[in-house]
Design brief:
Largest sheet: 5 strands, mixed
Shape: globular
Structural class: alpha/beta
Oligomer: single chain
Strand order of the largest sheet: 1-2-3-4-5
Number of helices: 5
Length: about 140
């Protein structure tokens, strides 16, 4: 799903895997997709494929970008808890992240937009094998 989403955004003139100056202390990793709003100001989209800590880092990265003026806003896309069992263990999910929404709502940003979108699977097909997992919960490389 992420690859299709990123391909669509790229076709609409979004930049993929763009590094922005988010913090003066350390450069953050690249953002999955950004759309240029004006000179050096972007809107960000992060698609969660990592663990719950990665979800926190993605939202914090967007907030830091909003505080320093490089981002006008951003959206994090992540799976529902129901979809969780079909993915690798400990992947960030909406239900586990939602208790922290109050924290992010209270960051003093005068102009910007921060959102989290929960995605769900359309159906379950028992004929499709599950993603093989290692003993650590990570996807196995076949």
């Amino acid at each position: 799903m992420k690859l299709e989403c990123m391909a669509h955004l790229h076709s609409k003139r979004w930049y993929l895997e763009k590094r922005l100056h988010i913090s003066s202390e350390r450069n953050a990793g690249p953002i999955d997709a950004v759309y240029p709003i004006s000179n050096d100001i972007y809107f960000a989209v992060e698609w969660e494929t990592g663990n719950i800590s990665s979800s926190h880092r993605a939202l914090n990265k967007i907030c830091l970008g909003m505080l320093n003026g490089s981002l006008l806003g951003g959206t994090l896309i992540l799976p529902s808890r129901e979809m969780y069992s079909f993915l690798t263990d400990r992947i960030g999910n909406y239900q586990e992240l939602s208790p922290y929404f109050h924290l992010w709502r209270n960051i003093n940003i005068s102009n910007g937009y921060l959102s989290v979108i929960e995605v769900e699977h359309d159906e379950i097909d028992v004929n499709i094998p599950l993603i093989p997992k290692g003993t650590d919960g990570w996807a196995k490389f076949i």
